[in-house]
Amino acid sequence: MRFKRSAITLTIIDIIAGLAALIAAFLLFGGRNFPTGIVNLCLFTVIVIASNIVGFLFAGLYRRLWRYAQLNDFSFIFWGVLLGQTFGYLLTRVAFNMLIPIRVWITQSLILFLLTVASRGLIRVYYEGIPFSLYNGNNHGKKVIIVGAGSAGAMVIREIHHSMREQYHAVGFVDDDPSKQGCSVHSVPVLGSLNDLPKLADRLQIEEIIIAVPSAEQEIIRKVSQLNFSKPVKLKVIPGMSAFIDGTADIKRFRDVQVEDLLGREPVRVNLEEVAAYLTGKRVLITGAGGSIGSELCRQVACFHPESLIMLGRGENSIYEIGIEMQESFPKLKKYKVIADIRDRQTIKNVFDQFHPQVVFHAAAHKHVPLMEDWPEEAFKNNILGTRNVAVEAHEHRCERFVMISTDKAIKPSSVMGATKRVAEMIIRALSEESATKFVAVRFGNVLGSRGSVVPLFKRQIERGGPITITHPDMKRYFMTIPEAAQLVIQAGAMGNGGEVFVLDMGEPVRIVELAENLIRLSGLVPGKDIPIVFTGVRAGEKLFEELLSTEEGTTATRHERIFVATLPNGIRTDLFGFLEEIERGLALGKTYSLEDVLKELVRDYSNSKGFVDEVAATSIEL
Question: How far, in Å, are 152, 242, 357, 594 from residue 396 at the CA level?
Answer without folding.
Answer: 56, 44, 11, 32
